[in-house]
Amino acid sequence: MSIAKTPSIEISNLYKSFGDNEVLKDISLSAYKGDVISVLGSSGSGKSTLLRCINLLETPDSGQLKVSGEEVLMKSNRKGQYRPADNKQVERIRTKLAMVFQQFNLWSHMTILENVIEAPVHVLKMNRKQAEDNAKRYLEQVGIGDKFNAYPAHLSGGQQQRAAIARALAMEPEAILFDEPTSALDPELVGEVLGVMRTLADEGRTMIVVTHEMGFAREVSSRVIFLDQGRIIEDGTPEQVFDNPESLRFRTFIQAMV
Asked: How are the residues of the chain apportioned to helix, strand and coil, as percentages rounded to the nearest 5?
């Protein structure tokens, strides 16, 4: 008798609005260990907001979020707004979900090594020596092991983004959320970051990737979803979505990207 696996991330019936603008509408999504889910969509479709809701950088208006089977407890305040019920739970959940941002978000006054060890030491309370050893190992893994004493300003954009990926890995997360990780890079630097992400996928890392890189989505993803005006209108394997799309909207999107 097989035992059902628990998703690393499970979202059910998620809604999110900013004022009168309904950005996410009835989103349901499950990511299991080792899944690489690429999230596609035009600007303003809700892709980044989806990631920020998963990581609780934004609070959904309604719906359910589970991380490693643990439901994030929510409550309504006196204004009727949905809010996390337990801030300590939110802090704990966030340690399981590392995020790589579009603009790197490295601290400019810290060396790359200091950037990578900051959260393990201060959030996970890891021994500094262990944190440094781990950080150097991850920096080697992403191909910038010789840059640990450099400051972000002395690195290329691709190197900075690889440092940000090492910082995410240092938290030993259940899943990594990538928010358009190559969109701020010069074209010649995109490949080096995608190469690191391909390696992570080969390792079996659980990843949700908001991206405009169609080649990566087709070749590396286990699953592709397409958001349009806050709704998922395509969802399937890369072969299903790219070769036999169900919606005219996605066909138009793909033609525009070629």
From this structure: 40, 25, 35
pLDDT tens-digit readout, 111-145: 999 999 999 999 999 999 999 999 999 999 999 99
pTM above 0.85, yes or no: yes
Strand partners, 31: 9
Take residue 132 and report the two structure tokens written for it. Answer: 């440094």
Q: pLDDT tens, 61-103?
A: 999 999 999 999 999 888 878 889 999 999 999 999 999 999 8
Contacts of 254 (CB under 8 A, 6+ apart): 214, 242, 245
Give the residue from 101, 14, 26, 31 showing the smallest Cα distance to 67: 31
The CA R_g of the chain, rounded to the nearest whole Å, is 18
* HSE (side-chain half, CA atoms, 13 Å) at 225: 22
| Distance, CA of 86 to CA of 36 (rounded, Å) | 29
